[in-house]
Amino acid sequence: MASIQAISLDGAHKKLIDVGLERWARSKCPVRRYGFLMSNAAETFNARILWARRLPICSMIKAIRHVIEPWFDKRRELVNARDHPLTEEALRKLIEEVEKSHFYNVVAITQSTFKGLMPCSHAAASIVRNNELIYDYVWSYYKMINLRDTYELSVNPLPHRDEWVVPKHIASIKVLPPIVTRQAGRPPIRRHRSDTEAFNRPHRQPMKCSICHEPGHTQTTCPLQIRENNE
């Protein structure tokens, strides 16, 4: 804050103080609003190949290929069978926006003035008014041609090591196993989460007694059970 105050000529420092530190400073925010690291796709794939990570490197690559290859084949068949220029999800969203635009009073619009990934209802109304093709205003990311290119390549098997083309400066390097001391117990298989990665721990149900149905203890330590045994 001292650095901002030193270079602030338009009262920016005072405005930040007046608005409240909790509204923009992460350290003062009462809730966790920033710094979320989402890696759902990586976590899903990591869980799928968890068993293969214990194999030797070549065997692991072959195992991962057997996992990926059916995915590519299935999705390649789906995208090749679709003859619409947009993906199914993009077309559904676009239809929703077009239906909203039926009662709008609009003005002209051109591709040079429109900037966005998917036309909203206001842009869709103007595009339809100009008798233009609305698909031309959709970002190429949502078009089938790019989706086909994603699954066009094949996942080839790993060739025999005699067929590997290894550069000389790589082949001359002798790779030794790392010097590690194995700890007691089973080695961890889950990924170590970083300190800045937000995740929700599973909510544990409170312990409840099956005799008196009160929380905080079980039937073994239930006061009613102990009282009956003493009597």
Describe the protein in words.
The chain has 231 residues and is an all-alpha fold. Helices cover 39% and strands 0% of the residues. It contains 9 helices and no strands. It has helices at 2-7, 12-19, 40-48, 57-81, 88-100, 121-129, 144-150, 168-171, 223-230. The mean pLDDT is 79.
Q: Sketch the topology as an H/E string, one letter per element.
A: HHHHHHHHH
Helix content: 25-40%
Main beta sheet: none
Structural class: mainly alpha
Question: Which band does the percent of strand residues land in?
Answer: under 5%
Number of strands: 0
* C-alpha termini separation: 70 Å
Q: How much is the average pLDDT?
A: 79
- The tally of helices reads 9
Global morphology? extended
| Rg estimate, integer Å | 30 Å
Segments where pLDDT lies below 50 for 5+ residues?
none
GO molecular function, one term: nucleic acid binding
How would you summarize this macromolecular structure in one to three sentences?
The protein has 231 residues and is mainly alpha-helical. The chain has helices at 2-7, 12-19, 40-48, 57-81, 88-100, 121-129, 144-150, 168-171, 223-230.
Jot down its keywords.
extended, mainly alpha
Please outline the helices and strands.
Layout: H1 2-7, H2 12-19, H3 40-48, H4 57-81, H5 88-100, H6 121-129, H7 144-150, H8 168-171, H9 223-230
Helix pairs in contact: 5-6
GO molecular function: nucleic acid binding; zinc ion binding
InterPro entries: Znf_CCHC_sf (IPR036875)
